[in-house]
Amino acid sequence: MLILFFRKSVQFKEKDFLMKAAVSHLHHLQEGNTCPVVRLAYQILLTVPVTVASAERSFSKLKLLKSYLRSNMSQERLNGLALISIENEYLGKINCDKLIDQFVVKKARRWIFK
């Protein structure tokens, strides 16, 4: 019965629905102790694609960043740009006005001494 429901839920393309369905299946498997091996395989199945995609994305982005800006970049700047490039969907959700207001309140400025 779980397999049939999972097949039906995979047909939908929405990420939220798939995530909710996957979590509900995992909770259902954890409630009953009848299939511990299936539960373990399901946990691995749900976590492996996320970790592999993130690693592949980070390597490809890092390669692009290093080849484009290698000559004038410190390690700290490279790390920051790599993080921004990898997690760009979270960056789109940031409220820039709120961030600017926080910066103004802190009065944090870089001092240039001559």
From TrEMBL:
Domain of life: Eukaryota
Coiled coil: none
GO molecular function: protein dimerization activity
Span of domain HAT C-terminal dimerisation: 30-89
One Pfam family cited in the UniProt record for this chain: Dimer_Tnp_hAT
Protein name (record): Putative HAT dimerization domain-containing protein
Species for this entry: Rosa chinensis
